[in-house]
């Protein structure tokens, strides 16, 4: 995959403004016309044990698929607006950070771009952080776009 392009960039995306600002920052500051951008999203299914009826499961799956399609449409359109070479990939894994790192390594990505909510150390420890996982486990360089920095722009 990397042979056709100078660089292959993996950009983690969801519907948050953090992802959108990270994408915009990448476009304005790092993007080169010969880069291939692969927008990756890991759909998150969250069902409690009390919600395990077949109809609730089907409803949840449909909601996740609709959300994934919204993300795909949004970022495919943004790439088209900027005349970027790229694609959208939905990764099927319960651990988004791990899935993104594995995917980037598998396609020989040059680097990963991700946004972050800027959680404090305590909240990041309790809640977990996809960007923190990627930063500490990736085999390729990682560009983390902090929301606080982006808000100052």
TrEMBL record:
Domain UspA stretches: 8-146
Pfam families reported for this sequence:
Usp
Q: Which domain of life is it from?
A: Eukaryota
Entry's InterPro entries?
A: Rossmann-like_a/b/a_fold, Universal_stress_UspA, UspA
Q: What is the designated name of this protein?
A: Uncharacterized protein LOC106074584
């Amino acid at each position: 995959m990397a042979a056709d392009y100078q660089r292959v960039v993996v950009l983690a995306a969801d519907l948050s403004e953090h992802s959108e600002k990270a994408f915009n920052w990448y476009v304005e500051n790092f993007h080169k016309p010969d880069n291939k951008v692969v927008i990756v999203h890991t759909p998150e299914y969250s069902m409690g044990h009390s919600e395990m009826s077949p109809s609730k499961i089907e409803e949840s799956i449909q909601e996740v698929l609709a959300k994934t399609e919204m993300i795909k449409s949004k970022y495919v359109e943004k790439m088209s607006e900027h005349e970027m070479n790229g694609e959208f990939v939905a990764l099927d894994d319960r651990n988004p950070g791990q899935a993104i790192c594995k995917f980037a390594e598998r396609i020989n990505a040059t680097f990963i771009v991700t946004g972050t909510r800027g959680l404090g150390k305590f909240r990041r420890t309790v809640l977990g952080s996809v960007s923190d996982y990627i930063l500490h486990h990736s085999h390729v360089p990682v560009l983390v776009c902090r929301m606080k920095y982006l808000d100052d722009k």
